[in-house]
């Protein structure tokens, strides 16, 4: 037996089955903790809920791609759009400290950026840009908004000639994610 359930839905009574993954006992019945498929194992007398969207929240060491939403003095805030190259629908944000990176502008608002999740502290996802493949994947000129090209470790606008220093990924302007914007 398998059916879709919402958090708090009644699945079975505690006299019939035991709680399994993503379920809890409220004293009289077994209820679900998340959206998913309820799986009742009659042989083992166990009730589990299989999560429908398993990659909706990044874990430690996951590679995420997202859009920079805010730039502060020593960190940036990124809205995650992809976890390990898989698109997600939930809007999750992470922060990335930038004080150890010796660049004038690590990233600007609306830059597409690739990060690695290093942990979850106090309900906040923390990420890093350490690594040659991590950093800005796509950006535009901050002066005129036109396309830019990479010149070693800086970007130069093709329209106005403005140059800007960013923490560029080795995959800058080479990724399939650029087509999304």
What gyration radius follows from the Cα positions, in whole Å? Answer: 22 Å
Q: Structural class of the helix and strand makeup? A: mainly beta
What is the total domain count? 2
Order of the strands making up the biggest sheet:
8-9-10-12-11
What portion of residues belong to β-strands? over 45%
The helix/strand order is EEEEEEEEEEEEEEEE
Question: Could you say which overall geometry the principal axes of the C-alpha atoms support?
Answer: elongated
Q: Looking at CATH, which topology of the largest domain would you report?
A: OB fold (Dihydrolipoamide Acetyltransferase, E2P)
Count of β-strands: 16
Major sheet characteristics? 5 strands, mixed, barrel
Mean pLDDT: 86
Question: How would you explain this protein's 3D organization?
Answer:
This protein is mostly beta strands and 181 residues long. It has two domains: 2-51, OB fold (Dihydrolipoamide Acetyltransferase, E2P) (Beta Barrel); 63-173, Beta Barrel (OB fold (Dihydrolipoamide Acetyltransferase, E2P)). The protein has no helices and 16 strands. The chain has a five-stranded mixed barrel with strand order 8-9-10-12-11. Strands 1-6-7-3 form a four-stranded mixed sheet, with no helix packed on it. The protein is elongated and about 75 Å long. The mean pLDDT is 86.
């Amino acid at each position: 037996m398998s059916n879709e359930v919402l958090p708090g839905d009644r699945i079975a009574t505690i006299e019939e089955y035991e709680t399994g993954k993503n379920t809890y006992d409220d004293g009289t019945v077994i209820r679900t903790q998340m959206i998913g498929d309820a799986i009742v194992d009659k042989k083992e007398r166990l009730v589990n809920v299989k999560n429908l969207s398993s990659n909706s929240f990044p874990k430690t060491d996951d590679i995420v791609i997202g859009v920079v939403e805010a730039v502060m003095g020593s960190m940036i805030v990124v809205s995650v759009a992809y976890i390990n190259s898989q698109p997600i629908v939930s809007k999750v944000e992470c922060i990335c400290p930038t004080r150890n990176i010796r660049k004038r502008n690590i990233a600007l608002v609306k830059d597409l950026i690739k990060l690695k999740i290093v942990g979850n502290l106090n309900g906040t996802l923390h990420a890093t840009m350490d690594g040659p493949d991590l950093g800005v994947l796509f950006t535009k000129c901050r002066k005129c908004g036109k396309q830019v090209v990479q010149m070693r470790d800086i970007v130069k606008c093709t329209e106005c000639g403005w140059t800007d220093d960013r923490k560029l990924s080795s995959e800058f302007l080479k990724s399939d994610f650029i087509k999304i914007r």
